[in-house]
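Morning!

This is the sequence you dropped in the shared folder:
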Amino acid sequence: MGRGIAEVCAQYGFSVFLVDSDEGVLASARKEMLWSLQKLLSKKQIFEDPEKVLERVVFSRDGIVHDHLDFLIECVPEDIGIKKRILSHYDRICPTETIFASNTSAIPIGKIAVSTNRPDRFIGTHFSSPPVMQKLVEMIPSLMTSAETVLSTRYFLEALGREIVEVKGDIAGFVMNRIYLAAAAEGMRLLERGIASAADIDRAMRAGYGWSKGPLEAADLAGLDVILGAMSSIWEDTGSPIFRPPEGLARFVEAKRLGRKTGSGFYEYDQGGKKRK
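The structure's back. Tokens below.
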């Protein structure tokens, strides 16, 4: 997600720092961004030389050291402890006017914002995956987010050509995942009970409701570890049995069957990430 959001920002003319502690991850991100931009150029969805776009991206292990930084967008794993630790660190070194935005898929924004000294300049920006192809972004202010921060974030997201859904209540799962994860959890339970195969569950939602991907396909694409984390956040926040993570999901994550990124999840994938028949 971080790579995709950085690519979108660079496409729309923004200077970007893409930060990760792993040099290999950064090298891979640059390679994937170049491939993506070249593909978009070949389809005439962009018209700028991909290398020129990438000139606006600084790939850094050392963090952000800059006198002027409008937005910091956090895209670390869906673990509130990790998010708080990293955001607390950047809170100390970023300019006071920098707006912090979390790409969390389910954790209430206020719970993360309190790890910083800028909760009034902290907001949720949940980008749909993959950001390069999907325009939708949920914008989630907490009770502490200032009106100025909401307005500045809206201007920024509009400058990225995004379609914005403003979430009026800072609840776990927001809008998209509140609906999707309820469906995904039920799909997983139906699979566990042997009611239908993964392929038929997904086919039912594609053919019957017009979904572009079925709930299990979408889970594999997002990463089953991400899905488990998001589902757990809503379960812990609400106590609703609808969102209690199915046992099979936890077992898949324990076995490192995380979906397309590891080659297996509800489906098996080849090295190119295509589903095996």
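Headline: The chain has a mean pLDDT of 95.

More detail when I'm at my desk.
O.
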